[in-house]
């Protein structure tokens, strides 16, 4: 495997892939310096990039490389991996459902996509059938639609080189790089233009020749009707997995405790980590320092982002932080709307009710007490989940289905074991993670009884 890496997990993943016998290519200057070695600039057969929200990574490339990388990225019990039905570079026949903002919503076999009007030629209206290519895939937990374009290209993973269908000429970062194409042995197919990415600047002739040769093969496959030459997948890292990646990164360079956990919180926090590590190596995860600088703090608004093993994320509402503990715990107060009942408790949800939730960084569960407006308890629901992470604007985790409830008469009941069993049977939850969830639920059940 030859992998091109980008984003906040790059140092740790470069170590993981290298130790597994794979080759890291197109490395940035900091990676060259940290590993004190030179990495080749040749084409990749796998691209691994950090997601926009820094919660995980996307994989795109040869199907075998994607499959192997998915296994390698199981760095902790709370690492989840999902195949992407609309990977980067895949080509689809889509139908325009309507318009949204400055673009069109296009239905694909793998779901919906978004086509900016700037990325299409001609007028687009509802009912049109279009041939589109994915230019920006979307993480399953983001709720976003992948972006597509009607312009088709044959691209190599990592962005070193591509061929553009229906065009001619050479698009390159500078004239010097463009001039190298004339020195290459590859024959550009008729009806395709050459596009060299920024990473092509400084690449050797052999590397560019190989990259364009691979792109030419892909162009031939596209002309023959191959719609999906690449596979794709997403990996979400939970708190335990981020700390595992810290350990891997620490083998290469100075890495503070909670390095990836903090960087995943915000761009500002990511910059602060780089600054702190340039000065010294803090001992222990500095939750109080992180939360004091970036949040959450008392009075802040915080959303509960309830992840599911399928990759979907449900926001359970937004509340106010009413208590803050520098040891890593907060209390969140949410006002409830009337209608329906509270899951498993079978108690009606009424106007004026409030939910008091206690969330602790790194804990595998959290309780919510439902109360009337007068402070009378209506029941307690304890959610079992992957270790909670308290980011500036949200608490995040993945729900592990099994939960424990306590009714107002003191009876305690464990619920939804069958949903966890089903998730294991379908491969959404690994056995070791399910075992942990059951152990946590058992301990809670005993503590509440």
Topology readout:
Blueprint (H helix, E strand, L loop, with lengths): L1 E5 L3 H10 L3 E3 L3 H7 L10 E5 L5 E6 L1 H10 L6 E5 L7 E10 L2 E6 L2 E6 L12 E8 L10 E3 L3 E3 L5 E5 L4 E2 L3 H5 L12 E5 L8 H19 L7 E7 L1 H12 L8 H5 L3 H13 L7 H8 L6 E7 L5 E13 L3 E7 L5 E2 L4 E2 L5 E7 L4 E7 L5 E9 L3 E2 L3 E13 L5 E4 L1 H9 L5 H18 L1
Parallel strand pairs: 1-2, 1-3, 13-14, 16-25
Antiparallel strand pairs: 3-4, 4-15, 5-15, 6-7, 6-9, 7-8, 9-10, 11-12, 12-14, 16-17, 17-18, 18-21, 19-20, 21-22, 22-23, 23-25, 24-25, 25-26
Helix pairs in contact: 1-6
Structural description of this entry:
By secondary structure, the protein is α+β, with helices and mostly antiparallel strands. The protein folds into 4 domains: 105 residues, no CATH class; 59 residues, OB fold (Dihydrolipoamide Acetyltransferase, E2P); 66 residues, no CATH class; 154 residues, FomD barrel-like fold (Beta Barrel). The model has no long low-confidence stretch (mean pLDDT 93).
Q: Which descriptors apply to this entry?
A:
single chain, alpha+beta, OB fold (Dihydrolipoamide Acetyltransferase, E2P), 4 domains, 7-stranded mixed beta barrel, 11 helices, 34% strand
């Amino acid at each position: 495997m030859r992998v091109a890496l980008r984003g906040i997990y790059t140092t740790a993943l470069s170590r993981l892939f290298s130790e597994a016998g794979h080759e890291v290519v197109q490395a940035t200057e900091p990676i060259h310096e940290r590993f004190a070695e030179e990495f080749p600039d040749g084409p990749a057969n796998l691209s691994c990039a950090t997601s926009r929200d820094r919660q995980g990574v996307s994989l795109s490339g040869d199907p075998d490389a994607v499959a192997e990388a998915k296994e390698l990225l199981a760095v902790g019990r709370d690492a989840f991996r999902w195949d992407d039905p609309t990977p980067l570079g895949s080509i689809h026949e889509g139908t325009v459902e309507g318009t949204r903002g400055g673009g069109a919503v296009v239905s694909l076999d793998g779901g919906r996509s978004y086509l900016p009007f700037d990325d299409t030629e001609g007028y687009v209206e509802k009912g049109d059938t279009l041939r589109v290519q994915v230019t920006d895939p979307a993480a399953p937990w983001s709720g976003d639609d992948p972006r597509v374009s009607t312009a088709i290209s044959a691209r190599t993973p990592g962005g070193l080189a591509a061929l553009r269908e229906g065009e001619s000429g050479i698009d390159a970062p500078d004239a010097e790089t463009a001039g190298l194409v004339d020195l290459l042995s590859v024959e550009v197919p008729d009806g395709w233009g050459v596009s060299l990415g920024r990473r092509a600047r400084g690449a050797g002739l052999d590397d560019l020749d190989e990259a364009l040769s691979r792109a030419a093969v892909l162009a031939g496959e596209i002309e023959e009707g191959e719609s999906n030459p690449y596979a794709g997948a997403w990996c979400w890292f939970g708190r335990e997995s981020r700390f595992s990646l810290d350990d891997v990164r620490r083998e290469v360079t100075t890495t503070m405790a909670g390095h990836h956990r903090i960087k995943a919180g915000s761009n500002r926090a990511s910059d602060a980590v780089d600054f702190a590590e340039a000065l010294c190596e803090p001992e222990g995860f500095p939750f109080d320092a992180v939360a004091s600088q970036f949040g959450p703090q008392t009075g802040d608004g915080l959303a509960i982002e309830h992840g599911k093993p399928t990759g979907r994320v449900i926001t359970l509402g937004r509340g106010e932080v009413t208590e803050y503990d520098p040891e890593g715990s907060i209390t969140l107060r949410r006002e409830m709307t009337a209608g329906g009942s509270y899951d498993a408790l079978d108690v009606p949800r009424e106007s004026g009710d409030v939910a008091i939730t206690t969330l602790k960084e790194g804990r595998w569960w959290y309780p919510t007490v439902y109360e009337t407006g007068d402070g009378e308890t209506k029941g307690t629901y304890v959610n079992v989940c992957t270790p909670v992470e308290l980011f500036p604007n949200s608490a995040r985790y993945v729900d592990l289905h099994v939960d424990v409830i306590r009714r107002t008469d003191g009876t305690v009941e464990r619920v939804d074991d069958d949903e966890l069993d089903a998730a294991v049977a379908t491969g959404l939850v690994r056995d070791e993670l399910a075992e942990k969830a059951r152990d946590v639920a058992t301990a809670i059940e005993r503590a509440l009884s």
